[in-house]
Specification:
- With 186 residues, the protein is of the alpha+beta class.
- 37% of the residues lie in helices and 27% in strands.
- The chain has one domain (5-179).
- The chain is built from 8 helices and 9 strands.
- Helix 7 (146-159) runs parallel beside helix 8.
- The protein is globular, with a radius of gyration of 15 Å.
């Protein structure tokens, strides 16, 4: 298969976000189509329930996220334009997947959403643009961070990343640039 579907990893400083075509998740999670009818792409990030949704973070909240997290959320941002234009002030690592790899990535991401009666569980409004938090599976810990979740998602897509050791945004960006299959963007 030809690897010609661009995927982007966005460096937000402490954590990375994963951008993939909206259609790859819409088929698996129809609730997203209803919530984000204009999305061409989704940027997703996984993190601690309390810390990630809070507008004002503190050292005690960070400690709690690392050691006593009660759960996780996914942040989903709807993107209509080119992700490179939308995130033009961020460090972005871009690579390409083939259709099978994208399907594997989309299934990993879809399985990260917690469902109740076969529906996504909406939480707080998102951080920027048209975005929303959703209840996620898993629990944030010192060794299972937002960056590790992204690296694991990419590993599931066939990138062969040592995701268990990828805890910083920089480590994920470097690995994607070293391992990702380059592609020509129009």
């Amino acid at each position: 298969m030809k690897a010609d579907i661009p995927i982007h990893v966005i460096n937000h400083g402490w954590h990375v976000g994963l951008v993939l075509p909206a259609q790859s998740l819409n088929d698996l999670l129809p609730d997203l189509t209803q919530r984000f009818s204009q999305a061409n792409y989704y940027e997703l990030g996984w993190g601690d329930d309390g810390f990630y949704q809070s507008e004002e973070n503190s050292a005690s909240m960070a400690f709690s996220a690392l050691f006593t997290s009660k759960g996780a959320v996914l942040h989903v941002a709807s993107i209509e334009e080119s992700p490179l234009a939308y995130f033009d002030r961020h460090v972005v690592a871009t690579f390409c997947l083939d259709a099978q790899q994208l399907s594997q990535l989309a299934h990993f991401v879809a399985d990260s959403f917690m469902l109740q009666d076969n529906e996504l569980i909406m939480r707080e409004p998102g951080r920027y643009g048209d975005s929303q938090f959703y209840q996620a599976t898993g629990r944030y810990t010192l060794m299972h961070t937002c960056n590790r979740w992204t690296a694991e998602a990419l590993d599931q897509a066939g990138m062969d990343l040592p995701y268990r050791f990828m805890l910083t945004a920089g480590s994920v960006i470097r690995a994607v640039r070293n391992k990702g299959q380059s592609c020509v963007l129009n």
